[in-house]
């Protein structure tokens, strides 16, 4: 993809040229930022260790946290929790996509539908997904389904709204040209609309992922006995603070990785210039 | 690649946009033989684009008929393809994909598409750019892609609405000659709308002047010049001033009469 190694960098000298490479530079900044975060954490851990009043919480520090990882992996706790949470996340997002894209296309293409649905959608969107919990549990009568529903209802809005916004930017002339060249309604959808707005759909999915990942953890605090959210609760109750922070770190790493993955996909499918 | 033209027959064509609006034009009659390149010129708002859209099948006439080889135009078809002022290429497709898109709608086989697309791209001289992103092409090159995308359908009739007006003078001049040459080589009909009298003379076999409100064809002029036509040729110059005079007379004698009087 990006091959920024121009002859100029070679002539301007090995080491300096290497650090002038924009990709290397960006990675350098990212690592430095994370390094500062780790250092702050280390210092923080050191002080709660030193202070007799807070010593009980010393396992929150960086070193105990890092030591907790092998333990958690060995008993398989971390893998199971990640697998269960990811399963819920993907089901929730899948539903959000299946519902959100067609709704977004309707909203974007049909003025009447947009005018009719805008207020109710904005209204429902502003209700915190977690506030549905009691009703949802009643309806689904089991926890997995309830959590997936909460994720779906949190994630559907960004998918829907960015699909609609993408469609609004679609040049109507493309439809005219396509019709002129013999496109049937099916072609309009698969050859024009979808490729034209893949970028917007993925951008919506990226936002949806962020929201769903944030909603997932508190949703798992309630009722269920599996998943990352539950593991945090469990570690707190058993006073295994090092496990707790290790899970928090895992949540961050997974969220960050998934987000980066989507950024890569968005770049790949973006035809927008500039 | 060789394309057969079509006989265009317009009979009593009348149009209004809706019940409240005035007639756009009233009872237009016109015949254009197979293979003719026909220019429509006229003041802004006299209904040129509307006429073209009816020929393309994207608008319906209020009365009268547009016939191609005796068959009434009812809807868009790859047999009569319209090209617009802007290229409107699909930016997520390469040059090759843009040119072939109409053939994929018609479910041609991959090999067949490749063969035809290669021919069309050759015709518009874009071979070095087949795999380029269309957003990286110049305005003139993009309009060439749009032309190839229309030609690849081997239409009997190509409809052009001020196709080159967004381009610089040099690009415009070379495309005008190319399009005429391609049409003459392959034998299809062209009907094009233009504001540019030079364009009409360089490209057309015949020019018709539309004027009035409701609009109608007020004058027809054969452009009987040998190819290739150069702007600075005396014969081109002579015809140009004749067309210009006719155009002004036609315009004054019709709707512009009061305005012309007050201007004197
Ligand atoms: N969608 C529409 N609804 C109502 N009236 C319209 C519509 N489109 C065009 N008209 C009117 O119809 C008349 C003819 O329009 P048309 O676009 O055919 O003119 P034109 O000759 O192509 O003009 P130009 O040279 O400026 O492109 C104009 O008076 C215009 O105002
Ligand atoms: Mg027009």
Automatic annotation (TrEMBL), chain A:
<dbReference type="InterPro" id="IPR000515">
    <property type="entry name" value="MetI-like"/>
</dbReference>
<feature type="domain" description="ABC transmembrane type-1">
    <location>
        <begin position="82"/>
        <end position="262"/>
    </location>
</feature>
<protein>
    <submittedName>
        <fullName>NitT/TauT family transport system permease protein</fullName>
    </submittedName>
</protein>
<feature type="transmembrane region" description="Helical">
    <location>
        <begin position="147"/>
        <end position="168"/>
    </location>
</feature>
<dbReference type="Pfam" id="PF00528">
    <property type="entry name" value="BPD_transp_1"/>
</dbReference>
<dbReference type="InterPro" id="IPR035906">
    <property type="entry name" value="MetI-like_sf"/>
</dbReference>
<keyword id="KW-0472">Membrane</keyword>
<feature type="transmembrane region" description="Helical">
    <location>
        <begin position="244"/>
        <end position="266"/>
    </location>
</feature>
<dbReference type="GO" id="GO:0055085">
    <property type="term" value="P:transmembrane transport"/>
</dbReference>
<feature type="transmembrane region" description="Helical">
    <location>
        <begin position="27"/>
        <end position="48"/>
    </location>
</feature>
<dbReference type="GO" id="GO:0005886">
    <property type="term" value="C:plasma membrane"/>
</dbReference>
<feature type="transmembrane region" description="Helical">
    <location>
        <begin position="121"/>
        <end position="141"/>
    </location>
</feature>
<comment type="similarity">
    <text>Belongs to the binding-protein-dependent transport system permease family.</text>
</comment>
<keyword id="KW-0812">Transmembrane</keyword>
<keyword id="KW-1003">Cell membrane</keyword>
<dbReference type="GO" id="GO:0010438">
    <property type="term" value="P:cellular response to sulfur starvation"/>
</dbReference>
<keyword id="KW-0813">Transport</keyword>
<keyword id="KW-1133">Transmembrane helix</keyword>
<feature type="transmembrane region" description="Helical">
    <location>
        <begin position="92"/>
        <end position="109"/>
    </location>
</feature>
UniProtKB/TrEMBL annotation, chain B:
<keyword id="KW-0067">ATP-binding</keyword>
<dbReference type="GO" id="GO:0005524">
    <property type="term" value="F:ATP binding"/>
</dbReference>
<dbReference type="InterPro" id="IPR003593">
    <property type="entry name" value="AAA+_ATPase"/>
</dbReference>
<dbReference type="InterPro" id="IPR027417">
    <property type="entry name" value="P-loop_NTPase"/>
</dbReference>
<protein>
    <submittedName>
        <fullName>NitT/TauT family transport system ATP-binding protein</fullName>
    </submittedName>
</protein>
<keyword id="KW-0547">Nucleotide-binding</keyword>
<dbReference type="InterPro" id="IPR003439">
    <property type="entry name" value="ABC_transporter-like_ATP-bd"/>
</dbReference>
<dbReference type="InterPro" id="IPR050166">
    <property type="entry name" value="ABC_transporter_ATP-bind"/>
</dbReference>
<dbReference type="InterPro" id="IPR017871">
    <property type="entry name" value="ABC_transporter-like_CS"/>
</dbReference>
<dbReference type="GO" id="GO:0016887">
    <property type="term" value="F:ATP hydrolysis activity"/>
</dbReference>
<dbReference type="Pfam" id="PF00005">
    <property type="entry name" value="ABC_tran"/>
</dbReference>
<feature type="domain" description="ABC transporter">
    <location>
        <begin position="8"/>
        <end position="237"/>
    </location>
</feature>
<comment type="similarity">
    <text>Belongs to the ABC transporter superfamily.</text>
</comment>
<keyword id="KW-0813">Transport</keyword>
